[in-house]
Each structure stands twice: as C-alpha cells, then as structure tokens.
Amino acid sequence: MERRLEVVLDPRNDELRRVVECVSGIGSEWSWAVAEAFESEADLASASRDDLEAVPDIGEKRAASIRERVAR
User: Fold this and answer.
1) Which residues span the domain enclosing 25?
2) What would the pLDDT profile of 14-28 be if each residue is shown by its tens digit?
3) Which of 17, 33, 41, 66, CA to CA, is 20 to 30 A from 9?
4) What separation, in Å, do the N-terminal and C-terminal C-alpha atoms of the chain show?
5) Which InterPro entries match (predicted)?
C-alpha cells in the first residue's frame, strides 16, 4: 500500500505511465502496474522481458511491446 501511495504522489510516474500508455493494448490499469513495479524510466528501459512479464497481467506480448517502445 505504501508503494502504491508513492506511485500516485510521485510526478515522475506520470511520465512513466505516459510512455507505457503509448503502447498499443496498454491502458491506465496496466500503466499503473508498471509504474508500481519500476521506479523510473531508466529502470523500465533496463528491465528484461522477464522483469516485465513479472508485472501482474502484463504477459509475454505486452512485455515485448513495452520493451520495443522503451528501446526507441
């Protein structure tokens, strides 16, 4: 719960969520899950596909799409 509150209050997560929401098939629910799992865009960019798949409900296809997006 504490981490979720930090995610909501930290303005850096807005940018992280915007990046993730640019991926087709990723909406606000999943972007919040990603923001909760990763502290920054740099953390997200260095995340492996397995790291992304570990985020609840992201799965293999969404993880691949997110990795492709943040690699740009």
Assistant:
1) 2-70
2) 888 888 998 988 888
3) 66
4) 32
5) RuvA_2-like
Kindly report the CA angle at 65 between 21 and 14, in degrees rounded to 5? 25
CA–CA separation, 67 vs 70, rounded Å? 5
Report the distance separating Cα 67 and Cα 44, nearest Å. Answer: 8
Which residues have C-beta within 8 Å of that of residue 11, sequence separation ≥ 6?
Answer: none
Tokens of 65: 């799409």
Question: For residue 7, what are its two tokens?
Answer: 């995610």
Quick check: 40 and 16 in contact, CB under 8 A?
yes
Length reported for the chain = 72
**Based on the structure, what is the number of domains in the chain?**
1
Give the domain CATH number at 40.
1.10.150
Give this prediction's pTM.
Answer: 0.76
User: What is the structure's pLDDT at 60?
Assistant: 94
